């Protein structure tokens, strides 16, 4: 944000990027002694700035703070026993003073904005760039500024806004409150510039460089967010017709670690297979997130290693169980697992013996004994209610729906449950490895079908919407069940589209924004998430500004806390 609150400097160190976000209480990290004025006047130096502008995505995508702010506090997730930000999950005493996730994202988003503004203001001064290179680099910075400002304005509402670069050494301690419309005017201006000046394709996945299709896809999302349905449908349709992208034949194929660079992904945050390149201790990212790479593999996993320690121990394929988030009963009920392959492609329901032993009993019969072999089922979680008769002769532990949720849908067991498996990474080096090299899919083609469907529904064209949804549902169908997955135009409603987005995109860091965009956040949380229903209020459609930011500004009467928060 302002220079005394958040600032970033990029420096060239033998080809590596060094950057840091500092506030009034911290000293700057600048081992080289270089300054922006000296560094950002050559193409080589300016490249470090552009690279740095991309890196702030790593504080949100694939990180616990980002998941908590984008998936939790919705209709489809609630907190497991390991949740460290329950205020975001349940809205229980959510304040700017008690949620570190808000502070981390605020600080780093505004650091990114400062860097983008600096680069845009200086691009014309780089003598060794061609005119075409200047246009492309400015287009990248404008896209990233629009991307970060979208996260800021949707999360916090009309807070601080600037397109000015703050000069090094200038201390500014005031902030402004800016209308939401001003943010979006700039977002659309930047994205339109990006569409005109970005490259059509790229082979640079390490940054990863944005392209015209990426800008168009994000623009489609922005059009839908602002109720510009004709524009949203047209832009999404452009991507759908783009021969460079295609839906993968099987939904499950999306999540294979060997298939991350696939034709359905329009833009992803690339995490290096060399984890040291992503880590806090890396020379490339000394001020990066403390957990480095993608952490999604840990956050949605039940503590399977506590089911039966004689038979099932923590291992690499099943992930490191942080037990942060669990599905609401609502999310599980959205799936018809008989017809829809996305249920078993998204969720893990069984855990197999990885430690041979003799054990006694199961959930229904505590007297039975059985010799378990490697590969035998040890734990089974079911979205149905199991009976003693159905479990006769079964020796594994079961956590059926009646043992995890009560009749009202409130979890009675927050340790053992059906777990999201989309983000598991069996290529990790050890069972305790917190980092994954898995890329995070920010925009994929399936979202374009969903955007086009919603926009057409809003335009009074449910037949077109149904056709688009049926394309996704046909891909999702278990072979032989394609007909059962088809819907009619009469079935298309806004709630059905939100249900379909949950089936397709659950866990992909979009849900909170989807509910806010459709004005369904309060309604669906109140009706469908009993954990959060008792606490959510109308003002929760924006998050509280971090208290550290409120304390830092000198114009507190103009820059006050968001309404409803202390």
Automatic annotation (TrEMBL):
Signal sequence interval, chain numbering: none
Localization of this protein: Cell outer membrane
Q: Which domain of life is it from?
A: Bacteria
Has UniProt tagged this entry with the keyword Metal-binding?
no
Q: Which SUPFAM superfamilies match?
A: TPR-like
The record ties this protein, via Pfam families, to:
SusD-like_3, SusD_RagB
**Which UniProt keywords are given for this protein, alphabetically ordered?**
Cell outer membrane, Membrane, Signal
This protein's record includes keyword Signal: yes
Q: Which residues cross the membrane?
A: none
- Major site of localization recorded for this protein: membrane
Q: Which residues form the SusD-like N-terminal domain?
A: 97-224
Which intervals hold domain RagB/SusD?
Answer: 263-565
Family membership noted in the UniProt record: Belongs to the SusD family.
Write down what this protein is called: RagB/SusD family nutrient uptake outer membrane protein
What species was this sequence derived from? Niastella soli
Q: What is the lineage of its organism?
A: Bacteria, Pseudomonadati, Bacteroidota, Chitinophagia, Chitinophagales
């Amino acid at each position: 944000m302002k220079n005394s609150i958040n600032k970033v400097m990029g420096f060239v160190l033998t080809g590596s990027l060094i950057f840091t976000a500092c506030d009034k209480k911290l000293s700057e990290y600048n081992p080289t002694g270089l300054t922006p004025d000296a560094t950002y006047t050559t193409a080589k130096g300016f490249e470090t700035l552009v690279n740095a502008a991309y890196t702030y995505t790593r504080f949100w995508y694939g990180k616990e703070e980002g998941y908590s702010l984008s998936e939790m506090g919705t209709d489809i997730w609630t907190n497991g026993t390991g949740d460290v930000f329950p205020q975001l999950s349940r809205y229980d005493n959510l304040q700017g003073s008690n949620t570190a996730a808000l502070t981390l994202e605020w600080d780093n988003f505004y650091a990114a904005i400062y860097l983008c503004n600096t680069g845009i203001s200086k691009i014309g001064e780089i003598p060794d760039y061609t005119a075409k290179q200047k246009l492309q680099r400015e287009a990248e910075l404008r896209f990233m500024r629009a991307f970060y400002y979208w996260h800021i304005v949707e999360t916090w509402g009309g807070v601080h806004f600037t397109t000015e670069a703050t000069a090094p050494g200038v201390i500014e301690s005031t902030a402004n409150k800016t209308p939401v419309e001003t943010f979006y005017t700039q977002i659309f201006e930047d994205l339109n510039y990006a569409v005109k000046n970005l490259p059509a394709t790229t082979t640079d996945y390490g940054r990863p460089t944005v392209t015209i299709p990426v800008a168009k896809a994000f623009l489609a999302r922005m059009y839908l967010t602002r109720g510009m349905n004709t524009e949203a449908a047209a832009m999404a349709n452009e991507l759908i017709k783009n021969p460079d992208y295609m839906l993968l034949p099987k939904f499950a194929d999306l999540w294979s670690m060997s298939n991350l660079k696939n034709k359905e992904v329009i833009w992803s945050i690339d995490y290096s297979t060399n984890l040291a390149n992503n880590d806090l201790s890396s020379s490339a990212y000394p001020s990066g997130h403390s957990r480095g790479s993608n952490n999604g593999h840990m956050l949605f996993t039940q503590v399977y290693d506590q089911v039966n320690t004689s038979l099932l121990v923590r291992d690499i394929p099943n992930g490191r169980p942080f037990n942060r988030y669990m599905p609401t009963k609502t999310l599980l009920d959205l799936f018809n697992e008989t017809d829809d392959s996305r249920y078993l492609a998204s969720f893990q329901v069984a855990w197999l013996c990885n430690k041979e032993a003799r054990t006694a009993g199961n959930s229904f019969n505590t007297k039975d004994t059985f010799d378990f072999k490697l590969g035998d089922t040890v734990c089974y979680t079911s979205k149905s209610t199991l009976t003693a008769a159905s479990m006769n002769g079964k020796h594994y532990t079961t956590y059926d729906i009646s043992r995890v949720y009560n009749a009202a849908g409130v979890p009675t067991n927050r340790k053992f449950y059906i777990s999201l498996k989309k983000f598991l990474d069996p290529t990790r080096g050890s069972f305790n490895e917190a980092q994954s090299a898995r890329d995070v899919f920010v925009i994929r083609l399936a979202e374009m079908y969903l955007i086009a469907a919603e926009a057409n529904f809003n335009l009074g064209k449910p037949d077109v919407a149904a056709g688009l949804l049926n394309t996704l549902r046909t891909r999702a169908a278990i072979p032989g069940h394609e007909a059962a997955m088809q819907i009619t135009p009469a079935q298309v409603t806004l709630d059905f589209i939100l249900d379909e987005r949950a089936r397709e995109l659950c866990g992909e860091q979009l849900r909170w924004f989807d509910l806010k965009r459709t004005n369904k956040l309060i309604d669906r949380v109140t009706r469908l998430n009993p954990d959060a229903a008792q606490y959510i209020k109308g003002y929760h459609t924006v998050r509280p500004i971090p208290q550290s930011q409120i304390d830092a500004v000198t114009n507190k009467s103009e820059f006050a806390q968001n309404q409803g928060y202390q």
